[in-house]
Amino acid sequence: MARLDDLTRPPGRPPRLLYGGDYNPEQWPEETWAEDARLMREAGVTSVTLGVFSWSRIEPTPGAREFGWLDRVMDLMHAHGIGVVLATPTSSPPPWLGRIHPESLPRDEDGRTEWWGSRQHFSHSSEAYRRHAAAITEDLAARYAHHPALTMWHINNEYCTHDWGDEAARTFRRWLTERYGTLDALNTAWGTDFWGQRYGAWEEVLPPRRAHYLKNPAHLLDFRRYTSDLLLECYRAERDIVRRHTPHLPVTTNFMPLWSGQDGWAWAAEEDVVSVDVYPDPRDPCAGQYNAMIGDLTRSEAGGRPWAVMEQAAGAVNWRTVNHPKPEGLNRLWALQSVAHGADAVCYFQWRQSRQGAETFHSGMLGHAGERGRVFRETVRIGEDLATLGPRVAGSRVTTRIALLHDWNSWWADPGDGALSRRVDHAELVRAWHRALWDAHLPASFAHPHHDLSGHRLVLVPHLHLLDDPAIENLRAYVRGGGTLVCGFLTGIADRDGRVRPGGMDTRLRELLGIDLLQEWWPLDEGERADCGTFHGTLWSEELTPAPGAETVAAYRGGDLDGRPAILRSGRAWYVSTLPEPAALSGLLASVAREAGVRPVLDGLPEGVEAVRRGELLFLLHHGNAPVTVPLPGRHRDLLTGTMTEGAVKLDRFGVAVLEEHPPAPGEERP
């Protein structure tokens, strides 16, 4: 099976990092294309993604094929030594498809049609959509299978369509039949005797459309599972077509970062290259940690192999309330940070900033200011950096000994409007725990609760309120095998159907974590803090009775929970019944990590400096504004500058150093 390594480590050629972005030449007069190719060469671009939104250009009327313009662009890229990631254009059907086949358009929860005129206006369940998508994919693959510019396939774009219409109802019932077999099994799994909603015929089962009051959480859980699976069916259908024509080329589709709509673990298993679109907010003081987290998650979905940044912004985006540009140097910092976290491809949306359409204010590698603009000059510098690093970095891996567990099924099982606290946000809790590690300079990966965890010394469970039986047994086996486990609040309270476990938490987990009885959940209001002695808890608290022999590491002080455990420990298993404030959570996890034999990459790092080891290289990334000096034992050479350093490295604002150890040659004296 083809991998990203096949592109970044081609036989007989030096390893390289891919660099480029989405290129939409159909938006521009043809005389612009040659200028684009010249500037791409100047910027060190090695890869462009073509055709993402080109369906109406290729097929302006049903059955027509106009490939001439794309032929010329493919030839132009090849003539300039630029590889093409060719996209199937199926994320944005032409208006004629919706006009002729209105059943191909998705409907929302209220039954309203989502019309053409934007993008992603397709029903994943529509037979007409699937038929036309397969036809254009077939012809595209047949025409360009042997084109020398073609290096990889990009299927669709940011799969995110939901559908509550009649087409979806048909396939939802099919999916449920395959999952449960009988209506009795479905009624049991969904608990439909509550509110007397037991189903007597499959025709009565619909997507969870607008309801008078709260919807059934189990119904919602399965609809989210179904939506991910139906979109994955669409991906597989197109992937299998292009693989048949080009079995030697890798295939990808781009994830959105930590997005709830796709089961990233299931999707990544179907891809040759795992890729992601990531857009940190330049005004977010923790944006560097967010970028690191998305890199860690994507690398983990890829099984530790190199992965691809398919989209990021060279400057401002256009969809926040206020869209700030990236200060000088920040684009370079985040691009190289992704490389540090395992990326072998650094790409952008898009190459040339659009002058028309909905994204005219979304930046491009070549912005409205043109080749004299700051953004383009930074584009050139990043290309130079990646060309320098490629031979030493491409194909190497990041090794970690800490894993955070994440599962989309648990995210989907969130009871939503019926929850005790709507302030509990799964993604934000995952980010809070990852940030605690990042602040402590402890590198981490992600894992599914079914994965083999034995290679990790420390496993963290920030928020998995749904844990099935195999996952629970896996955690118990991990601790029995000598691993250290730290679980956050609400861990394992529900089974695979979202049904609350007897006792409010699975008995096996309570035994593992030293909990005799979970008396009550006590959510905290916004601004409310729980006094835990040496720190304050936020968001949540719990009334726990510890089991005999369990150690109360921290207890609540005052109020109804006075004296109750805030943090419990039973051997190598810990339970944290609140969300400690950031510094306290970071300190706790750093302490547990030390005991488990995991230490930071470097000690004594200044605030805002991140250290990551990838292969034999040490990346130092400065996320702060003021220059800093980083103490560094031994002698090193910075690959980006060629300079030697011993004892310390100086980093300017948003500075990056990529260091290799450089012991003195025999007879050489140290300076």
UniProtKB/TrEMBL annotation:
Beta-galactosidase trimerisation domain ranges (all copies): 401-598
EC numbers: 3.2.1.23
Entry superkingdom: Bacteria
Domain Beta-galactosidase C-terminal: 608-661
Keywords of this entry: Glycosidase, Hydrolase
Catalytic activity: Hydrolysis of terminal non-reducing beta-D-galactose residues in beta-D-galactosides
SUPFAM superfamilies hit by this protein: (Trans)glycosidases, Class I glutamine amidotransferase-like
Glycoside hydrolase family 42 N-terminal domain segment(s): 22-388
Gene3D superfamilies with a match to the protein in the record: 3.40.50.880, Glycosidases, Golgi alpha-mannosidase II
Alphabetical list of InterPro entries matching this protein: Beta_galactosidase_C (IPR013739), Beta_galactosidase_Trimer (IPR013738), Class_I_gatase-like (IPR029062), GH (IPR017853), Glyco_hydro_42 (IPR003476), Glyco_hydro_42_N (IPR013529), Glyco_hydro_b (IPR013780)
Region of interest (Disordered), ranges: 1-21
Similarity comment text for this entry: Belongs to the glycosyl hydrolase 42 family.
Entry protein name: Beta-galactosidase
Organism: Streptomyces narbonensis
